[in-house]
Specification:
about 425 residues, alpha/beta, six-stranded mixed beta sheet, about 20% strand
Length: about 425
């Protein structure tokens, strides 16, 4: 069933490749019902119990519409949820040597993370409902934000996003606004009930990144008090417009791009394409139609530029992407086709793998497009897999792996930024 859904979703995305605009916030759709999500189980605790004197005045009296408590959150510090699941990984290097990377959340994390997931819903309607699936929204969150629980408290709202079907042609402008209104409601609810003056990282991918781009432009960038709480924003698989050769301006008037690991109050944005398949004419990502503007490209592994090895985290079954869904874990019967390393050399038992020698990345550009170029350093003579999969079409590039490819780099950077912000 999951394989059928993945094939259907891929087909829908390929249909969209012939259309203009990107998946990161350009989706449209229509309103659906307010069915509550059942993705969390409340637990005893007071980590986000109530607003206090540190809550920003502009949010102190906000009356949440649908995000009060832990309902309608994929991840919330006051609930046992998918962000508390097993995230251990096995590090594999080119000679097949392995090392277990144990993971645990930091219950005393000094900052928060607010995550908005990508276009993932297989609902047939133009907009999803609020009944999140562990195989869709939950699967994306495990791949893209749960690991950041080692550095921050994770808040991930369920929202009525424009679905894959909606993006393929049944969406409306009202549907796009519905998705944004949900994210805005979740943000204001978080700020009123849980933030309490803490620094916050925003992270989103694809449609989620586009919605966060709008949230930053309308809610954070113009307001000094809110902007002061921004540790950083990671906007993957969408286009953040900046003036050519500049780090500030365009989509955001005050918030610049991050250029050193100690920078805070800044943005990291990127879209990935293979070195062997650069963006063609009609590329979906890494471009903007605004005269004098370019799409920002900042490599999370090296903010200052240059080619560097990426620390990616991938599902332990090779070929898995955010559209594959289902359980995260190693294959029951590993073969050279579904495993990241020759099973005769090593057998993986963790749900994720890290491949620090397999890929390198560098921001590059042509006349129209700016992108994070991914080089896969496969060697048929060693036991490590030679490729990463994840391709949709030349126009879409490695969009499905935008976050997986640099997940470890994001985790490390968030830790550094948290120290810089708090220091």
């Amino acid at each position: 069933m999951r394989q059928e859904l993945a094939r259907t979703a891929t087909a829908l995305l390929l249909v969209m490749a012939g259309c203009s605009g990107d998946d990161g916030g350009s989706g449209e759709g229509a309103a659906q019902t307010d069915a509550p999500a059942s993705t969390t189980e409340s637990v005893t605790g007071t980590s986000v119990a109530s607003a206090d004197a540190d809550t920003l005045e502009r949010y102190a009296d906000y009356d949440a519409e649908q995000y009060d408590g832990t309902d309608n959150w994929l991840c919330h510090p006051d609930a046992e949820d998918l962000c508390d699941s097993d995230l251990d990984a096995t590090e594999i290097v080119s000679d097949g040597a392995t090392r277990r990377l144990s993971w645990s959340a930091d219950e005393d994390a000094p900052i928060d993370c607010f995550y908005v997931y990508p276009t993932i819903s297989g609902d047939s309607s133009p907009n999803s409902d609020l009944d999140a699936s562990p195989d869709e929204e939950g699967y994306a969150a495990r791949n893209q934000v749960a690991r950041l629980g080692s550095e921050c408290r994770v808040f991930a709202p369920v929202y009525r996003q424009v679905t894959l079907a909606g993006l393929a042609g049944t969406a409306t402008p009202e549907g796009r606004d519905l998705a944004y209104d949900d994210v805005l409601d979740a943000w204001k609810s978080y700020m009123a009930q849980a933030n309490q003056g803490r620094g916050v990282v925003l992270i989103g991918h694809s449609q989620g990144a586009g919605l966060l781009r709008r949230l930053i432009a309308e809610e954070i960038d113009p307001n000094d008090d809110v902007r002061a709480l921004l540790v950083s924003a990671f906007l993957a698989g969408t286009s953040v417009a900046v003036p050519e050769a500049e780090d500030v301006g365009g989509d955001f008037r005050e918030i610049p791009l991050c250029r050193t690991p100690d920078d805070t109050g800044c943005v990291v944005s990127w879209s990935t394409y293979r070195s062997t398949s650069p963006p063609p004419e009609g590329a979906i990502f890494g471009r903007t139609n605004e005269p004098g503007m370019r799409a920002a490209c900042v490599n999370p592994a090296d903010l200052s530029g240059g080619s560097t090895e990426l620390t990616g985290f991938f599902p332990a079954t090779r070929g898995g992407t955010i559209l594959a869904g289902g359980e995260v874990g190693a294959p029951e019967n590993p073969t050279v086709d579904n495993a990241w390393v020759d099973p005769e050399v090593a057998v993986i038992e963790t749900p994720f793998v890290s491949l620090p020698t397999l890929t390198t990345g560098e921001c590059t550009s042509n006349d129209q497009v700016d992108w994070l170029e991914i080089t896969v350093n496969g060697d048929p003579e060693d036991p490590l897999a030679d490729d990463i999969g994840g391709d949709l079409s030349p126009e879409w590039g490695l969009h499905l792996l935008d976050v997986n490819l640099v997940m470890g780099d994001i985790e490390g950077l968030v830790g550094t930024q948290a120290e810089s912000y708090g220091g």
